[in-house]
Amino acid sequence: MRADELADDPSPDACVEVTLGPLIPAYECNSAMFAEPLRITPADLLRLHMESDLALREIRAEAVRADVAWRRHLGRWHEEGRVAVADSEPEVTLLMRVLDGLRRQVLAPV
Q1: What would you report as the CA-atom Rg of the chain, rounded to the nearest whole angstrom?
Q2: Residue 83: its pLDDT value, please?
């Protein structure tokens, strides 16, 4: 709240002044824009802290859920690949026999 809004507050000296960082990164513009400092009551500051903590917990929980889902998906890909390689052994063996047979034909005296 602005300083003039604190006129009705029973303890305006208990308010905390919050200054935000630049609104536009300095590398995008020649001069960064800064927001006007805000004054906030302790109760509102506590509420802001609790709400931001709750939001961060939700973000962390979602990140953990996404990580678990990715690992499961990756595990399935790994298992499918392992099964595919295991199933291809007979084909490899067959191809090796065919190549051996062709080599014998080429090397056999006429």
Answers
A1: 34
A2: 82
CA distance 101 to 104: 5
Q: Which residues of the chain register pLDDT less than 50?
A: 1
Contact, 69 vs 75, CB < 8 A? no
Element (H, E) at 87: helix 42-87
Residues contacting residue 42 through CB under 8 Å, at least 6 positions apart = 14, 15, 16
CB under 8 A, 24+ apart: contacts of 59-65: none
What is the distance in angstroms between the CA of the first residue and the CA of the last residue of the chain?
Answer: 102
Tell me, yes or no, if the pTM score tops 0.90.
Answer: no
Residue with tokens 């067959």, as numbered in its chain? 94
107 burial (CB, 10 Å; 0-12 / 13-18 / 19+) is exposed
Is 37 in contact with 3 (CB distance < 8 Å)? no
Cα–Cα distance, 48 to 60 (Å, whole number): 18
- Give the integer Cα–Cα distance in Å for 96 and 92: 6
